[in-house]
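Interim report, section 4.2 (structural modelling).
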Amino acid sequence: MKQFKLTYKPYGNSAILIEWPQKIAIEILNDIQILVAKIENKNYKEILELNYVYNSLLIKYNSKYIHFLELKDKVELLYKKSFSDKIMVRSTSWDIPVCYDPEFGIDIAYMATEKNVSIDEIISLHTSAIYTVFGIGFLPGFLYLGGLPKKLHISRKEIPRLKILKGAVAIGGNQTGIYPQQSPGGWQIIGKTPVSLFNISKENPCKMKPGDRICFKSISKEEFLAIELEEDRGNYELKNSLLND
Amino acid sequence: MIKVLKAGLYTSIQDKGRFGYRNIGVPNSGAMDSISSGLANALLNNQENDAVLEIMLQGPTLEFTKTTAIVISGADMSPKLNDEFMLNYKVYTVKSGDILSFGQLIKGLITYVAILGGFQTETILNSKSFYQGITGESKLKKNDCIPYKTQTTSIKKANSILKINKQFFETKIIEAYKGPDFELFSLAEQEKLITNLYTVSKDINRMGYRLEESVIPHNKSMITGPVLPGTVQIVPSGQLIILMKDAQTTGGYPRVFQLSEKSIAILAQKKVGDTLNFSVLNNS
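Predicted structure of the assembly:
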């Protein structure tokens, strides 16, 4: 297994931020997942929480029991140690329906002008890619997806919007995502899904996990309304399939 | 229980927060000024994590339906029990039919009401803290009812050994560690970030406090990474946004400072137009 050059930074007085090289790559995600498994396997009582997204791993610790340098040394050692037990990573592929009508995709026309492509081309590019879940954060159930075609990369808004609707599908920089609830945010909005990505009434509020794959499927306004109705009644099941390792 | 006669501007139930769910993107939440909320609980000999009422800027009017004891803390919001003005940090016995109301905001921004045994709203993902999408609502509204414990033993005297510094949040010095992306900026820019005098803007809420000044406009695009309550982000316009308790768990702007829990509490009590300075702490 390839070892990366990691940087360890103190984050406040009770967390460490470990960063892999500044890029979005599945091999980095896998490497983080292996380190996380090694740390979890040790059951350190001074570690409170592990949280990873893209190329960063945050370790929150209890500063009563350990300091930054001590914990850094422990983790560094663990990273270098080979891991004999093979970790089973079971990943799922999910189809998410999206309506790209400009009524929902309020920035799609702006984006078409800015990128000098047609709206249809944006939809076709956005739905043809297979995205990898690189982490969940920002909001409950917000999936960070890697794999956005280069042609769709666009800067975030200079000043974030104070209100973006639940289900909005958006692009920020080289990332795409779905707003799981109403919130402020700085991304360009290109569509909307009628499906809830986070449901607190379910035993497992968020079905997706890092390593999963996502595909967007373009739907009409009529289909959007029909799925929304099913979803409200709790009858809608996302199309999904297990991926082979 | 308590009946909400008037909701106030932004009144919510908060305990210390929701921990361990960052990996599905669930924020910490919890009391913005945990020092004031903690003192109110301590005065009642409550548990540290007991749920309190958090009141921002403009207070609610509340009616009690059974005997209990309460303590008001944090911002001075001219609290009244029936027609009598109350003091902060003092234990009051309340009876069925008593009405708690608030008036003019004199000092600070956020007031807490702690109650004997804590408020008994629903626990979701190990916390009672209100958060949109996790608990049923994000703030109280008129006619809501908030349950609390029936008082069975006699109400204890205030915890008199407790040291209370009512002025702790009046300082404009905000202690902060350098954030993980501080070094992305040049030495001159770092100096400016540290020495600038900042003003609290009108965009302040439980997610974050935005500061007025455009210190260093930039176009540093980053891969999204983890952020914490107290993380100071610099947005492309050059303004700083200090993330607070309901903040996102991840963000894409450079993280230039990280506040301590005490500094988060101090900042929480600032209102539009208040000024502040950062004082850099050493974190290794």
